[in-house]
Amino acid sequence: MTSTTNIMPPTNITPTTNVTSSTSSTSSTSTPPAAASFGRVAPADWSALVSAALLGTERRTPPVAMRPGQGSAAALLDAAAVSTVRRRAALRPAPAGERPAPAPADPRPPLPPAARRRLSLLLADRGGAGGSSRRGTAPDLTELLPQWLAAADGYGYRAPEALLPELLDAARARTDLRSAALALAGPRALWLARLNDAWKFALRGIGGPAGFPLGDDPEGVRQQWEEGLFAERVALLTALRRHDPPAGLALLATTWSTERAEDRLMFLDSLREDLSAADEPFLERALSDRSRNVRATAAEFLSTLPGSAFAARMAERAHTCIGPDRTSGTTRISVEAPHECDAAMQRDGVAPKPPSGRGERSWWLGQLVEATPLDSWRERFADRAPAAIVALPVADDWRTELHDAWCRAAVRQQSADWARALLGAPGAPPQAAEVSPAGSSRDLTKLLAVLPGDERARWVAEFIAAHGLSDAFRMLGVCAVPWAEPLGRAVVDALDIARDAGSYPWSFSGVMGLAERCLDPAAADRLDMLTAVTDEPEGASPGSGGYWSEAFQRLVGTLRLRATMRAELTPPPAAPVPAGESARRTP
Amino acid sequence: MNPQGERWTTDQVLALAPGEASRKAGGKLAAPEPWSETGADEAALWGQCKGSGKQPYRTVVDLNGPAFTCSCPSRKFPCKHALGLLLLWAGGGDRAVAAGEPASWAVEWLAGRRERAGRPAGAAPGGGAGSRAPAAPEAAERRAARRMQRIGAGAVELEQRLEDLLHSGLASAGRAGGGDSPPGGSGSAGGSWDETAARMVDAQAPGLAARVRELGSVVASGADWPARLLEECALLHLLDQAFLGLDRLPTPLAATVRSRVGLTTEAAELLTGPDAATVRDRWLVLAQQDSDDGKLLTRRIFLRGERTGRMALHLSFGGPHRPLDLALPPGLVLDADLAYYPGARPLRAALGERHAPAAPGPVPPGCGIDAALTAYGDALRDDPWLDSWPVVLTDVTPIPGRDGAGWQLADADGESALPLDPRCSGRASRWQLAAISGGAPVTVFGECGHRGFLPLTVWDPTPVSL
């Protein structure tokens, strides 16, 4: 409970000063009837009453009139009661504080009612479910929020205002939701975030620098760049770079030499998305930067620009180390790793000191190959295609090292041809061991991500058909959602086989969870028959049949729910597609 | 499809949920999977929900009421199964909840309810009490007189306690450590507030006991606690004195004092007793708020009559074996009879006969901030113990608190404002209010009192509970 002083300073709530409202003045000038019937006490100043009450009537006689036979404490209570009711009855409004500027208008259409309620349910479930391995048959709503947000964003809807606080809280708690949640939440959420420190993150541009207001005024941009806080500057640079890459680079160049090393690294990193040959001179200069990390990043960027002088230098170095060797009749790859890491190599970003446990020559070689344009190998190996080059035998146990480096290069240069060649045929029996041999640091998932979507799904489907699910979790994670058909079927079949093998479903909880989120909802009907409790096969873990049935029920339930969610998100009525598109780009 | 009854919206269903956890749990069950033998007719829904046990739970919902029954052991009301079934149905699942004849296990309960509904409203629950009273009127009178005596004695004792406090000074109460006696130090300075509250319970004056317990929480709670403690002590003193002089008070004020002290009136008596006076109106549901103190679930439903303009507050209580019996989401209009509890400023009311199914209502008209404070001031003239009075505010703009300044609702003129009640520190509700407003004026319903304004519902323009 709070005193009336919260509403107005005491001077303004004394009844006598209140003459503006006829009704209130009635209630303030006439003694409230209830108080009147309990004895009339001359009005006393409230703060005098409080200090008398604090001290106690045994120490000070209160400034109140006493009725005959009444003690001073009772008289003080009488007076306080009258004063309290009077002051409460005569409350006047407080002066209004500064109003927030009105939130900018959001022209996007509101969600259809069913979708609005769905969002409310999805958000209400946030942060619920504990980490228990047995999850029952009910769908895990939290996991469905990201795809719901993406779908709603796709239609160009805006979030219901009443749900913005929950949406902001969700985005705050889960970075994976941020950009989709903030896009849906739109300008009003940013307006709210400016009023609440807990939502400052939304203004940092992490969710989408596209939302950063870029004025048409170059001088304003320049001033913001020079005077802004670090986070604002990163957002500004990212936004400008997206909008006009050369202008972004030029802006960065104006202050580059005076920035701190950590800041230079962050600013440099914001060039990553839109690298082009026009950036080469700047990156070349950055190879001489004082900071090792800046130098390394500049070298990495340059290696993705195949026509750059840097790439040519690297190719030259790599080609002197690696080449065809026909001495034994058949062509094989000979490897002569570099004997030193000279100053020029170091300037081009080659780290001289290997991590512990690695030989320095192979370490240098790996870096050279990784930064060498993959296309240059075709020429080096008599116009062979990538698959043919990969198939060549490699001399002196260099095969794993060399292929690992090519894998990294394929990822860095986004070369689908090389990724395909290095991945090989997914169904080949020793494939798992072959594509990821012992001692290799190869990341198949990253290679897969380089392949076009449908090819990727097909490759993973065949891999699962041949090798089962145990190594497939991360591969599934890079496949487009919903899973394209050969893949969905492969996963379901593999789960069915796993059940028949008699293990518990939670050995596959990762894949199950992915399947719930990623399988095409149309698969639900086919899966229905798997929800029945089957006879447990011989040697099966006890009770596994029931648990599998439960897991499949949850899978089917989740798929149906996703179908329902998708159906609820009908396209906005009568909104021509381009309008929706443009509305989406200007959140 | 339902031949006549319109299908509810999911919002309506969710508004029935007794809490966030229930909304969530109900939402999870709003899928066809766990359900079997579901069905609906124009006035009821039923279905079996697979739970953790062998037997599925049997859930029946009577849409007139609404009323719920379920074989699950939950003390939540409605339980998650009832919510899930309603959500499934409201979500448009004709496939999931098909029209049909009630299942055999649903028929009995529904028939019982429909039979009771045929009787005059209030007759069923009141029957027991009504038949007991005339059986032994003298004994009842003796009991009542004894209780009045006990309360009187309690009031005298409380007066002494308050005067002692004022005699030695509020500062000593602060030093004593907030009224809760430390271990070993109990009994000093006339005992703690909790002890005094317990004495008031013994004196059968729960209203006094609750106020005394409040005093304990005021002591040493924030900057100006002495002023607030003095206010509350003074109002408690006023109530004591009013009760001790009950004979000399006008009848309506005496009724207010009796109810404030904790003497209750039977709802059935109000609706069907010899002095029953009901008000029929189209009552717009302004807010429905639940609070749970761990033992008792209290649901407060605020209504306002379209014709009479009168505010009304319907209270219902739930507990472990006593589910809440009424759920009315804000925004509905109810053509029904209400009977106000007696008092100088009647607000609490009992719900009598309902003449038509509830239907969606309009955004209510309201007033400005001056008028809201005036309404509270007027109400205080009748009932000085009122902490607040329900009002609908129109065209007010929420101003979020910044730099130590509290939240406000600013009037359309932009100059005067009401502070938000600090009790609505439930961060979400304030920010929801701000989000819906977006810096523009909104219609808000809430309680306007000496602590400020406690917002309960905002219209966007559909009602959103805060």
SSE layout:
The complex is a heterodimer of chains A (587) and B (466).
Chain A: H1 10-13, H2 22-29, H3 33-36, H4 46-55, H5 72-89, E1 94-95, H6 113-124, H7 141-155, H8 164-173, H9 175-193, H10 218-227, H11 230-243, H12 245-255, H13 261-269, H14 280-286, H15 292-303, H16 309-321, E2 322-325, E3 332-335, H17 343-347, H18 360-371, H19 375-380, H20 386-391, H21 399-412, H22 416-423, H23 431-435, H24 444-450, H25 453-467, H26 473-477, H27 485-500, H28 509-518, H29 524-527, H30 544-568, H31 577-585
Antiparallel strand pairs in A: 2-3
Chain B: H1 10-16, H2 20-28, E1 35-40, E2 44-49, E3 57-62, E4 67-70, H3 80-90, H4 104-118, H5 123-135, H6 137-168, H7 170-175, H8 193-202, H9 206-218, H10 225-244, H11 251-261, H12 267-272, E5 278-292, E6 297-305, E7 311-318, E8 332-340, E9 349-354, E10 359-360, H13 369-382, E11 388-399, E12 408-410, E13 416-419, H14 427-437, E14 442-449, E15 452-459, E16 463-465
Antiparallel strand pairs in B: 1-2, 2-3, 3-4, 5-6, 5-8, 6-7, 8-9, 8-10, 11-12, 11-14, 12-13, 14-15, 15-16
Helix pairs in contact in B: 1-3, 2-3, 6-8, 6-10, 8-9, 9-10, 10-11
Protein name (chain B): SWIM zinc finger family protein
Domain SWIM-type (chain B): 57-90
Keywords (chain B): Metal-binding, Zinc, Zinc-finger
Brief overview:
Chain B: Pfam families: SWIM (PF04434). The complex is a heterodimer of chains A (587) and B (466). Chain A has 587 residues and is an all-alpha fold.
Can you walk me through this structure?
- The complex is a heterodimer of chains A (587) and B (466).
- With 587 residues, chain A is mostly helical.
- Chain A has 31 helices and three strands.
- Chain A has helices at residues 10-13, 22-29, 33-36, 46-55, 72-89, 113-124, 141-155, 164-173, 175-193, 218-227, 230-243, 245-255, 261-269, 280-286, 292-303, 309-321, 343-347, 360-371, 375-380, 386-391, 399-412, 416-423, 431-435, 444-450, 453-467, 473-477, 485-500, 509-518, 524-527, 544-568, 577-585, and strands at 94-95, 322-325, 332-335.
- In chain A, strands 2-3 form a two-stranded antiparallel sheet.
- In chain A, a hairpin with a 6-residue loop joins strand 2 and strand 3.
- Chain A is extended.
- Residues 1-43, 128-134, 206-211 and 576-587 of chain A have low confidence and may be disordered.
- Chain B is an alpha+beta fold and 466 residues long.
- Chain B has four domains: 10-118, no CATH class; 137-260, no CATH class; 278-360; 369-465.
- In chain B, the strands form three sheets. In chain B, strands 5, 6, 7, 8, 9 and 10 form a six-stranded antiparallel beta sheet that branches. A six-stranded antiparallel beta sheet of chain B has the order 13-12-11-14-15-16. In chain B, strands 1-2-3-4 form a four-stranded antiparallel beta sheet, with helices on both faces.
- In chain B, helix 10 packs across helix 11 (251-261).
- The two termini of chain B are 33 Å apart.
- Residues 120-133 and 177-190 of chain B have low confidence and may be disordered.
- Chains A and B meet through helix 2, helix 3, helix 4, helix 5 and strand 1 of A and helix 1, helix 2, helix 6, helix 7 and helix 10 of B.
- Strand 1 of chain A pairs antiparallel with strand 13 of chain B, so a sheet runs across the interface.
- Chain B: Residues 57-90 form the SWIM-type domain.
- Chain B: It comes from Streptomyces sioyaensis.
- Chain B: Keywords: Metal-binding, Zinc, Zinc-finger.
- Chain B: One of its GO terms (molecular function) is zinc ion binding.
- Chain B: It holds the Pfam family SWIM.
